[in-house]
Write a structure and sequence with these properties.
Layout: H1 2-9, H2 12-18, H3 22-39, H4 58-70, H5 72-75, H6 79-92
Helix pairs in contact: 1-3, 4-6
């Protein structure tokens, strides 16, 4: 959820700096919305321990990873969320295309 909120919070200028269009952001939010439907079946107390799969086209993984490195630390309030997202994106991103991020 924090990732989706962070996506919504970036300005048009920040979208442009990421090389994204509004359609890109909408597509990413649609992926997160679909995963949120899956998460509705998980007990709230178990959500932080539950992995939820998000189906993202391969070409979008690098874009999401770039966003996570640049913008997520500014918007997310939970360092654990940031670490889990960055780790999942690192694992899904070809090594030569990864954005390196400092971890808390």
């Amino acid at each position: 959820m924090e990732f989706a909120i962070a996506l919504l919070s970036i300005s048009p200028r920040e979208l442009e700096a990421l090389g994204w269009s509004f359609d890109d952001r909408k597509r990413f939010l649609d992926h997160f919305l679909a995963s949120g439907r899956v998460a509705q079946g998980v007990k709230p107390e178990d959500l932080s321990k539950t992995s939820i799969e998000i189906g993202v086209p391969k070409g979008d993984i690098v874009k999401l990873q770039k966003f996570a490195v640049r913008e997520l630390p500014k918007a997310a309030s939970n360092a654990g969320v940031i670490d889990r997202v960055l780790t999942a994106l690192d694992e899904a991103t070809p090594e030569k295309e990864r954005q390196k991020a400092p971890r808390s």
